[in-house]
Model the fold of this input.
Amino acid sequence: MARPPKKEGKNVLNPVVLVRLMHYYHLLQDRAVNDGPEIISSAEIADTLGLDDTLVRKDLAAIGVRGRPRVGFETPAVMTAIRDTMGFNDTYNAVIIGSGRLGGAIAAYGGFSKYGLRVVALFDAETSRIGTIHSGHFVQSIDNLEQLVARHGVRLAVLTVPVEAAQSLADRVVQAGIRAIWNFAPTSINVPEGVVVRNEHISVGLAALAYNLKRQTIENDAPAE
Amino acid sequence: MARPPKKEGKNVLNPVVLVRLMHYYHLLQDRAVNDGPEIISSAEIADTLGLDDTLVRKDLAAIGVRGRPRVGFETPAVMTAIRDTMGFNDTYNAVIIGSGRLGGAIAAYGGFSKYGLRVVALFDAETSRIGTIHSGHFVQSIDNLEQLVARHGVRLAVLTVPVEAAQSLADRVVQAGIRAIWNFAPTSINVPEGVVVRNEHISVGLAALAYNLKRQTIENDAPAE
DNA sequence: TAGATTGTTAATCGATTAACAATC
DNA sequence: TAGATTGTTAATCGATTAACAATC
Done:
């Protein structure tokens, strides 16, 4: 019987793998910037990042990159595969909702385009902020949201609004047709099936730090070995 | 022979467990705010968060909380245990380095004190920013860093500076005696052994979103089932 | 008591690592 | 060729889940 065609790198990658791929990507980017060699071995990547070399090869195999035995991996090929996998070559339009300090900081970040994201508008409900300019974007009234989302085919909304407003605005952007939300309000928002949401709880990072600070203290208090 | 004393909750918790504990904590906080009952079963926590109830009991056992068979867990006891485990009851002094939009947004966030963090100063190298006020903090010259760190026993530095400055400032704060760094510059910084560092790469969240946006597109293109 | 829920041991699952043949 | 590195199968490890006795 005919064997099913082997689609390499087509299965869903789990988030942990995605994070590692980003680390590989940044490492290779650094090398490229510093005119490093265009060949790298899995062992070199692994050593730099404190991983096992087999794991690196597995990850790269999962996104369809083949190395050359006795040689290694071609860094441009690896970077291209990561970009393709992640979708950095596709451009998605995004809007930022909330033009406070955080929204402004995010609007000012110039790095989004490298990852395929284009910020097309900045919204606020606060009349006093409407018409001001942040990093080249006029702050618009939230009333224009639906129209602009439809016109530009906006796929992603970045929420940088107060906690109280986060859920209702999330509902509104979903209603407007947006299918991905990047939530920076310190609350978890609920969305219907099929909508991607990423909650950037600042408390998660904080918790990890507080826990480790506490452990540092305990270790210092413990009798010296 | 005497059995060794069982120290519950004294072993190191892995980051995944810490994140789950924060979810439990926020869930219980919501209940408390809404005058919910003071007893909760592991099954109720698990169902709300989409987890297995055994996992919840294991996590709580790991931080030394005991439930009552046939009844459940007392929410105040659980919250206290999480707070104790995380170190939210200990207060650590922190400084923010970089008074741009992001530094300002973080300085303005009022939620840190709930987690035991107290921002005692905001620094900048840019002369034009020194002397301005952000959320009650004078922006000070970075020249004052060492003195202030020593005087206030500062444990944590939040880095909200440009990529180019991040590593050298990290070195400087470590030299000044700080043992934890929360880095918001989009680069990984290296620190000596014993120093806690948490890199908040915006690209990690972005990558996850970009990947999922791409998959949404692929699924829509796929033949309907 | 009966029965709901915990606490804990055993089983499962998935991810990581080890071993090693294939390869250029 | 010899040998370095990949690709892949098998083993290990750790985390999660299932099963169930203990408990109030």
